[in-house]
């Protein structure tokens, strides 16, 4: 089974607690206005990654991390790969799994009635990015989005807005990437600071 991914980035220290492996899936049909990652919309970009190979490489380093964060792109538009990956991670490691989706929980439940995602994910941040509801919240693009903790197959709404650092930078293959959700205008400031040092922040 293959999974269409944009990139795997680690370590990241946000989008969930602790030291994490970030997985960005490729492809999203929701097209929210002012999405931070429009390059992740197209389903014909990215790389086809064999789920089995990815699992093996993560299991090798799992002891050095606290969790995995899956973002995108839209993880639930590649549901079979998402579930295959997460079920195996849960079976073989102690890593927590945090997933970001543009769909709200009700939509996901209706579309994926097997509810396996509630069994294998630990946390879900749901809902589209709505520009008018942007409030500079930590780890949420807009205030319509809700954080759920899945416990024994039940979704428990979390009220804590500050569950991780706002953003972090990491380097891969001599390229600098950002993970997270910066404050309004913060992204341009960060880009300018890096440019002064001759460093380009990659678009994602
Ligand atoms: S769901 Fe996420 S990736 Fe998709 S368009 Fe909205 S903000 Fe962008």
In short:
This protein has 204 residues and is of the alpha/beta class.
Describe it.
- The chain is α/β, with parallel strands linked by helices.
- It has one domain: Alpha-Beta Barrel (TIM Barrel).
- It contains five helices and ten strands.
- It has helices spanning 51-61, 79-92, 105-111, 116-120, 186-196, and strands at 2-12, 20-25, 47-50, 67-71, 96-100, 123-126, 146-151, 154-158, 167-172, 175-180.
- The strands form two sheets. Strands 3-1-2-4-5-6-7-8 form an eight-stranded mixed β-sheet. It has a two-stranded antiparallel ribbon with strand order 9-10.
- Helix 1 packs parallel to helix 2 (79-92).
- Iron/sulfur cluster is lined by residues 28, 30-32, 35, 37, 40, 72-74, 102, 128-129.
Strand order of the largest sheet: 3-1-2-4-5-6-7-8
Strand content: 25-35%
The level-1 CATH class: Alpha Beta
* Structure classification: alpha/beta
Q: In terms of per-residue confidence, which ranges show pLDDT below 50 for 5 or more consecutive residues? A: none
Bound molecules: iron/sulfur cluster
SSE arrangement, N to C: EEEHEHEHHEEEEEH
Please, how many domains?
1
């Amino acid at each position: 089974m293959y999974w269409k991914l944009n990139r795997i980035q680690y370590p990241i220290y946000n989008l969930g607690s602790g030291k994490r492996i970030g997985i960005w899936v490729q492809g999203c049909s929701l097209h929210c206005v002012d999405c931070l990652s429009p390059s992740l919309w197209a389903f014909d970009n990215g790389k086809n990654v064999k789920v089995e190979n990815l699992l093996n490489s993560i299991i090798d380093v799992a002891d050095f991390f606290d969790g995995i964060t899956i973002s995108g792109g839209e993880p639930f538009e590649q549901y079979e790969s998402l579930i295959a990956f997460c079920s195996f991670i849960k079976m073989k490691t102690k890593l927590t799994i945090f997933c970001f989706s543009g769909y709200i929980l009700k939509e996901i439940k209706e579309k994926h009635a097997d509810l396996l995602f509630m069994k294998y994910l630990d946390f879900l941040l749901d809902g589209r990015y709505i520009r008018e509801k942007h409030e500079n919240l930590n780890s949420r693009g807009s205030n319509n989005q809700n954080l759920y903790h899945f416990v024994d197959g039940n979704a428990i709404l979390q009220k804590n807005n500050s569950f991780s650092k706002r953003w972090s930078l990491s380097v891969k293959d001599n390229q600098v990437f950002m993970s997270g959700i910066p404050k309004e205008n913060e992204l341009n400031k960060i880009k300018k600071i890096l440019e002064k040092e001759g460093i380009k922040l990659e678009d994602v």
